[in-house]
Specification:
Layout: H1 12-27, E1 38-43, H2 49-60, E2 64-68, E3 77-78, E4 91-92, H3 93-103, E5 106-110, H4 118-122, H5 125-132, E6 138-140, H6 148-160, E7 169-174, H7 184-195, E8 199-203, H8 212-225, E9 228-232, H9 235-239, E10 244-248, H10 262-269, E11 289-291, H11 304-307, H12 314-319, H13 321-333
Parallel strand pairs: 1-2, 1-5, 3-4, 5-6, 7-8, 7-10, 8-9, 10-11
Helix pairs in contact: 1-6, 1-13, 2-13, 6-7, 6-13, 7-8
The chain binds phosphoric acid mono(formamide)ester (CP).
Phosphoric acid mono(formamide)ester (CP) binds near residues 47, 50 and 295.
């Protein structure tokens, strides 16, 4: 494994092996496995779980890490190709990434979608260009279209909860939010669950249908693993027999590039009822669980009753970010001779 950029780059069996490694490292700590190794973390956007789990994972494996948050004690960074740099940014990532990569053994980067060019962002063009600048392994800490560390942790969470892979049904539901959000998490969840071999239903208003390329990648994974992927705006149809309801808000591909504009905002304003509540689980499987990657807006995305009740797996999901990141780092950085 050279990099960890997207779950779509791996066969389902390879992801399963990483999940198994995560479980092993959780049960059997290896506090010297990455002694002397350094992880550079470049966060172009805020984080709680990804930042904390990356640093904690490196420390628990005996390595160290440092964080660069441009503009907070370091130069502001320009990321746009061909930019005329006469604004606030004094340095371009074309120099910053190879410089930072040279200080460590692996580079983690978070760089969200701009919400401007749907085709380029679904292809993750800017992030892949950034990754190509690094001579060291790159870990995607959430790009425009992929959040593979979250996906790995979610797969482990499903295993921990005893949700069956074959025969298990996961509903990824769109939910309301005050602003349009990137596609990285929904694209990763549908990919992860399809690769795990689950029956996946994407429940969304028709204007929020996931891009065709995202669904095609997930269907290809489902074909290899024996799962299936469908999408609908019919809640009763989607939720019937669900073992997991995974909520996430995302931007409408139809209005991509016009975010903040009147039409998209008006559409979202009319969809306030897309907030997960206990009644959603009436037709679900007994003991069905609720998942969300966090951070979550209470009583906008999901009601307190669900989030605070026994269905909620959100804290377990967040905790699984640690062993998932340990597995990624172990696979990328552990030398053969130290095994
Ligand atoms: N789920 C997740 O990636 O959380 P953060 O944005 O806090 O890192």
């Amino acid at each position: 494994m050279r990099d960890f950029l997207t779950l779509a780059a791996f066969e389902p069996e390879e992801i399963r092996e990483l999940v198994v490694l995560a479980g092993r490292l959780e049960r059997e700590p290896e506090p010297r496995a990455l002694a002397g190794k350094i992880l550079t973390l470049l966060f172009l956007n805020p984080s709680l779980r990804t930042l904390a789990s990356s640093q904690a994972a490196m420390a628990r494996l005996g390595g160290s890490s440092y964080v660069i948050s441009p503009g907070q004690g370091t130069w502001q960074l320009e990321t746009r190709p061909g930019a005329v740099m006469d604004g606030a940014a004094a340095e371009h990532i074309r120099e910053a990434i190879p410089v930072l990569a040279g200080f460590g053994d692996a580079l983690g980067v978070r760089s969200f979608a701009r919400g401007v060019d749907l085709a380029a962002e679904v292809a993750d063009a800017e992030f892949l260009s950034m990754a190509a600048l690094s001579p060291k392994p790159v870990i995607n800490l959430e790009s425009a279209i992929a959040h593979p560390c979250q996906g790995l942790a979610d797969w482990k969470t499903l295993d921990d909860l005893g949700i069956p892979a074959r025969g298990g049904k996961l509903v990824l539901t769109w939910a309301n939010h005050p602003k349009p959000l990137p596609l990285a998490v929904p694209a990763t969840v549908v990919q992860m669950a399809a690769a795990r071999g689950m029956e996946v239903a994407v429940l969304r208003p028709s204007a929020y249908a996931l891009p065709a390329a995202v669904m095609a990648r997930a269907r290809a994974a489902a074909d290899r693993s024996g799962g299936s992927v469908a999408e609908t705006d019919d809640g009763a149809e989607a939720l019937r027999g669900a073992h997991v309801v995974y909520a996430k808000s995302w931007a409408s591909p139809i209005f991509y590039g016009e975010e903040g504009g009147g039409a998209e905002a008006a559409l979202r304003a009319a969809l306030g009822h897309w907030c997960v509540e206990e009644a959603w689980f009436r037709m679900a499987a007994p003991g069905a669980r609720f998942m969300h990657c966090l951070p979550v807006r209470r009583n906008v995305v999901v009601r307190d009753q669900v989030l605070d009740g026994p269905r909620s797996a959100v804290v377990l999901q967040a905790h699984n970010r640690l062993p998932a990141m340990m597995a990624v780092l172990h696979r990328l950085l552990r030398r053969e001779e130290t095994r």
